[in-house]
Give the backbone structure.
Amino acid sequence: MERTLIILKPDCMRRQLAGRVISRLEDAGLRIADCKIMVLDEKLLNEHYAHLTHLPFFLEITDFMESVPVMVIILEGNGAVERVRNLLGPTDSQKAPAGTIRGDLGLDKMRNIAHASDSVEAAELEVARFFR
Protein backbone atom coordinates (compact mmCIF):
# COMPACT_ATOMS: atom_id res chain seq x y z
CA MET A 1 0.00 0.00 0.00
CA GLU A 2 1.58 3.26 -1.16
CA ARG A 3 1.15 6.53 0.72
CA THR A 4 1.24 10.07 -0.54
CA LEU A 5 0.67 13.53 0.89
CA ILE A 6 -1.54 16.32 -0.36
CA ILE A 7 -2.06 19.81 0.98
CA LEU A 8 -5.40 21.43 0.24
CA LYS A 9 -4.13 24.95 -0.38
CA PRO A 10 -5.57 28.27 0.82
CA ASP A 11 -7.58 28.78 -2.38
CA CYS A 12 -9.27 25.41 -1.85
CA MET A 13 -10.03 26.19 1.78
CA ARG A 14 -11.25 29.76 1.11
CA ARG A 15 -13.57 28.58 -1.64
CA GLN A 16 -14.90 25.71 0.52
CA LEU A 17 -13.89 23.04 -1.98
CA ALA A 18 -12.20 20.60 0.43
CA GLY A 19 -15.18 18.25 0.57
CA ARG A 20 -15.46 18.11 -3.22
CA VAL A 21 -11.74 17.38 -3.61
CA ILE A 22 -11.74 14.71 -0.91
CA SER A 23 -14.82 13.07 -2.43
CA ARG A 24 -13.12 12.83 -5.81
CA LEU A 25 -10.02 11.28 -4.26
CA GLU A 26 -12.07 8.79 -2.24
CA ASP A 27 -14.28 7.97 -5.23
CA ALA A 28 -11.07 7.02 -7.06
CA GLY A 29 -10.37 4.41 -4.38
CA LEU A 30 -7.87 6.32 -2.25
CA ARG A 31 -8.22 6.09 1.53
CA ILE A 32 -7.48 8.83 4.07
CA ALA A 33 -4.90 7.46 6.51
CA ASP A 34 -4.55 10.72 8.47
CA CYS A 35 -5.43 14.38 8.10
CA LYS A 36 -5.28 17.64 9.98
CA ILE A 37 -5.91 21.33 9.51
CA MET A 38 -2.93 23.50 10.29
CA VAL A 39 -1.42 26.93 9.85
CA LEU A 40 1.85 26.60 7.97
CA ASP A 41 4.62 28.62 9.56
CA GLU A 42 7.71 30.15 7.99
CA LYS A 43 10.06 27.41 9.23
CA LEU A 44 7.94 24.59 7.80
CA LEU A 45 7.39 26.40 4.50
CA ASN A 46 11.10 27.16 4.12
CA GLU A 47 11.83 23.46 4.59
CA HIS A 48 9.05 22.32 2.26
CA TYR A 49 9.88 24.81 -0.49
CA ALA A 50 13.68 24.82 -0.01
CA HIS A 51 14.11 23.96 -3.70
CA LEU A 52 12.40 27.26 -4.63
CA THR A 53 14.13 29.74 -2.29
CA HIS A 54 16.24 31.19 -5.11
CA LEU A 55 13.24 32.03 -7.30
CA PRO A 56 11.77 35.54 -7.41
CA PHE A 57 8.26 34.32 -6.54
CA PHE A 58 9.32 32.38 -3.42
CA LEU A 59 7.91 35.00 -0.99
CA GLU A 60 4.65 35.11 -2.93
CA ILE A 61 4.29 31.33 -2.49
CA THR A 62 5.06 31.38 1.23
CA ASP A 63 2.78 34.38 1.85
CA PHE A 64 -0.02 32.57 0.01
CA MET A 65 0.51 29.28 1.88
CA GLU A 66 0.52 31.10 5.26
CA SER A 67 -2.62 33.11 4.49
CA VAL A 68 -5.21 30.66 5.89
CA PRO A 69 -5.15 27.24 7.54
CA VAL A 70 -4.73 24.36 5.10
CA MET A 71 -5.70 20.69 5.24
CA VAL A 72 -2.85 18.19 5.09
CA ILE A 73 -3.83 14.63 4.17
CA ILE A 74 -2.05 11.29 3.94
CA LEU A 75 -3.71 9.16 1.28
CA GLU A 76 -3.19 5.43 0.81
CA GLY A 77 -3.80 3.18 -2.16
CA ASN A 78 -2.13 1.18 -4.87
CA GLY A 79 0.02 3.59 -6.88
CA ALA A 80 -1.24 6.47 -4.73
CA VAL A 81 1.41 9.02 -5.78
CA GLU A 82 0.79 8.69 -9.51
CA ARG A 83 -2.97 8.31 -9.13
CA VAL A 84 -3.28 11.51 -7.09
CA ARG A 85 -1.15 13.44 -9.56
CA ASN A 86 -3.27 12.17 -12.47
CA LEU A 87 -6.49 13.07 -10.65
CA LEU A 88 -5.19 16.58 -9.92
CA GLY A 89 -3.84 17.24 -13.43
CA PRO A 90 -0.99 19.60 -14.38
CA THR A 91 0.25 22.19 -11.87
CA ASP A 92 -1.03 25.09 -13.98
CA SER A 93 -4.81 24.92 -13.63
CA GLN A 94 -5.25 26.90 -16.85
CA LYS A 95 -3.51 24.07 -18.73
CA ALA A 96 -5.19 21.24 -16.82
CA PRO A 97 -7.84 19.39 -18.81
CA ALA A 98 -11.49 19.33 -17.82
CA GLY A 99 -12.20 16.31 -15.68
CA THR A 100 -9.10 16.81 -13.53
CA ILE A 101 -9.45 18.46 -10.14
CA ARG A 102 -7.27 21.41 -11.12
CA GLY A 103 -8.91 21.71 -14.54
CA ASP A 104 -12.36 21.82 -12.97
CA LEU A 105 -11.64 23.82 -9.80
CA GLY A 106 -8.24 25.55 -10.03
CA LEU A 107 -7.63 29.12 -11.10
CA ASP A 108 -3.97 29.38 -12.11
CA LYS A 109 -0.48 28.01 -11.40
CA MET A 110 -0.40 28.98 -7.71
CA ARG A 111 -4.11 28.81 -6.90
CA ASN A 112 -4.31 25.23 -8.10
CA ILE A 113 -6.24 23.60 -5.23
CA ALA A 114 -3.60 21.22 -3.90
CA HIS A 115 0.02 20.31 -3.52
CA ALA A 116 0.77 16.62 -4.13
CA SER A 117 3.94 14.62 -3.57
CA ASP A 118 5.71 14.03 -6.89
CA SER A 119 7.40 10.71 -6.07
CA VAL A 120 7.30 7.90 -3.52
CA GLU A 121 10.52 9.24 -1.99
CA ALA A 122 9.13 12.78 -1.75
CA ALA A 123 5.92 11.42 -0.22
CA GLU A 124 7.89 9.70 2.55
CA LEU A 125 9.79 12.92 3.33
CA GLU A 126 6.66 15.07 3.21
CA VAL A 127 4.62 12.72 5.40
CA ALA A 128 7.43 12.83 7.98
CA ARG A 129 7.65 16.63 7.67
CA PHE A 130 3.95 17.33 8.19
CA PHE A 131 3.11 14.46 10.54
CA ARG A 132 6.06 14.50 12.97
